């Protein structure tokens, strides 16, 4: 009955148009009333405890790093470099979008920011070259959702903090699956564009290619520094976020000289606004997380999925289907914050590695960013490209299917995630 009260109250408040953070608080109060323990101090204390976490300091710094990268020209140079190398291939701008998405994912960790940057540069070029604009927008949207899987990932930070899982291991474990997501949509793009008539970019000389690569070198060094530093233990994920922000500011002001001092306040303000939204959600989720534990909802869920406990693969599949359904209705951050405290005890009982599951969980939530009706990334790409949602949905389907196949491939073959993690952490 407690599970029913939790789900019903949350969905009812969201259906009334209440923002997710307030809906989580309202859901918490409803559960407290049902359990006969109404006390406003519990709400306040758990909201404070939810946000009072050192690893969460990484969130504002990665947000700030993303703002500096876009304003400082790092993002644009990565796209230009990718165009120089593969722009001349048939359907080349599609491959440029994916290659640039993977490179940018290793810089910002924000799907929305990466998608907006990619779409603003590439959509006009793809429209001019005669590409199917709906399909192109679908590809860019699916390229953008690689960001939460490849480190540094804000989604993985939230999962790690909420579930008590090593963020460094999550970061490292996400590299191979993230690259696989990119390769899968490249294959889908090649299959979809076989018969399309489109103009290709002129082939660049080797000198021009190296010139563009040299121009983007400062941007390309950052992911190597972050992943390398995490692997050898030079700094923590939180410290990596500070390094990313400081490095991006240095590159934008001193190297590329595209960030002016007068722009800094606006960049700090935008990063602060985005961070405030995320942190308020985290605080609100702290209330629900505490009550979920108090009401023993994980125990009730464990009883429901008890028939699958003996088979890790089947159990993982069932949980992935559950998250996939939830992801169509909820945005990524609330899904992570709501589901992680519920699922973590079940994972431990079933003997599923929380790092392995975390990678699949974040990938699943990332796919939720391109599924209607919420589809945050899909909405972003529609806004930038000025196309109707119906067109973007049609365009995104083949690429979403490709990435979903990759996710379930990881369910069947967990070693794809775990073996690279073992190699890179030993």
Pick out its properties.
mainly alpha, single chain, globular, 426 residues, 22 helices, 77% helix
Structure notes:
The chain has 22 helices and no strands. With 426 residues, it is mostly helical. It is globular and about 70 Å long. The N and C termini lie far apart (46 Å). The mean pLDDT is 87.
Sketch the topology as an H/E string, one letter per element: HHHHHHHHHHHHHHHHHHHHHH
Query: How many domains?
Result: 1
* Poorly predicted tracts of residues: none
Main sheet summary: none
Q: Percentage of helical residues? A: over 70%
Radius of gyration over all CA atoms, rounded: 22 Å
Per DSSP E runs of 2 or more residues, the count of β-strands stands at 0
Determine the number of helices (DSSP H or I, runs of at least 4 residues). 22
Shape: globular
Head-to-tail CA distance between termini:
46 Å
Strand content is under 5%
Give the topology.
Elements: H1 2-15, H2 20-35, H3 40-51, H4 58-71, H5 74-86, H6 92-105, H7 111-128, H8 133-144, H9 154-163, H10 167-173, H11 175-192, H12 206-215, H13 217-232, H14 237-255, H15 264-294, H16 297-304, H17 312-329, H18 332-350, H19 354-368, H20 376-385, H21 389-412, H22 415-425
Helix pairs in contact: 1-2, 2-15, 3-15, 4-14, 4-15, 5-6, 5-12, 6-7, 6-8, 6-11, 7-8, 7-20, 8-20, 8-21, 9-18, 9-19, 11-21, 13-14, 15-18, 16-18, 17-18, 17-19, 18-19, 19-21
Briefly characterize the structure.
With 426 residues, the protein is an all-alpha fold.
């Amino acid at each position: 009955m407690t599970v029913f009260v939790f789900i019903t109250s949350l969905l009812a408040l969201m259906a009334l148009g209440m923002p997710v953070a307030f809906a989580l608080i309202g859901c918490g109060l409803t559960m407290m009333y049902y359990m006969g323990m109404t006390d406003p101090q519990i709400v306040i204390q758990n909201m404070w405890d939810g946000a009072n976490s050192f690893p969460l300091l990484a969130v504002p710094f990665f947000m700030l790093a993303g703002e500096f990268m876009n304003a400082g020209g790092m993002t644009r140079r990565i796209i230009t470099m990718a165009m120089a190398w593969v722009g001349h291939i048939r359907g080349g701008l599609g491959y440029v979008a994916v290659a640039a998405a993977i490179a940018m994912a290793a810089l910002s960790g924000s799907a929305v920011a990466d998608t907006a940057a990619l779409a603003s540069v590439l959509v006009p070029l793809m429209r001019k070259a005669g590409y199917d604009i709906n399909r192109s927008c679908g590809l860019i949207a699916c390229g953008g959702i690689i960001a939460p899987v490849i480190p540094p990932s804000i989604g993985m930070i939230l999962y790690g903090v909420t579930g008590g899982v090593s963020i460094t291991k999550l970061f490292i474990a996400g590299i191979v699956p993230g690259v696989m997501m990119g390769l899968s949509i490249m294959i889908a793009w090649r299959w979809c564009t076989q018969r399309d008539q489109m103009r290709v970019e002129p082939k660049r000389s080797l000198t021009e290619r190296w010139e563009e690569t040299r121009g983007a070198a400062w941007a390309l060094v950052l992911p190597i520094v972050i992943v390398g530093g995490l692997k050898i233990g030079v700094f923590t994920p939180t410290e990596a976020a500070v390094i990313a922000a400081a490095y991006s500011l240095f590159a934008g002001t001193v190297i590329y000289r595209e960030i002016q001092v007068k722009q800094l306040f606006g960049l700090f303000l935008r990063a602060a606004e985005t961070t405030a939204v995320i942190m308020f959600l985290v605080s609100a989720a702290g209330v629900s997380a505490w009550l979920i534990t108090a009401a023993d909802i994980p125990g009730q869920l464990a009883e429901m999925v008890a028939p699958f406990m003996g088979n890790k693969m089947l159990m993982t599949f069932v949980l992935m289907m559950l998250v996939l359904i939830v992801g169509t209705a909820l945005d990524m951050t609330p899904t992570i914050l709501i589901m992680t405290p519920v699922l973590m005890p079940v994972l431990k009982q079933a003997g599923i590695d929380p790092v392995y599951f975390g990678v699949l969980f974040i990938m699943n939530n990332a796919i939720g960013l391109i599924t209607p009706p919420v589809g945050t990334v899909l909405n972003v790409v529609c806004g930038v490209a000025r196309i109707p949602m119906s067109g973007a949905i049609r365009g995104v389907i083949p690429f979403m299917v490709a990435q979903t196949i990759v996710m379930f491939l990881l369910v069947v073959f967990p070693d794809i995630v775990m073996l690279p993690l073992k190699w890179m952490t030993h």
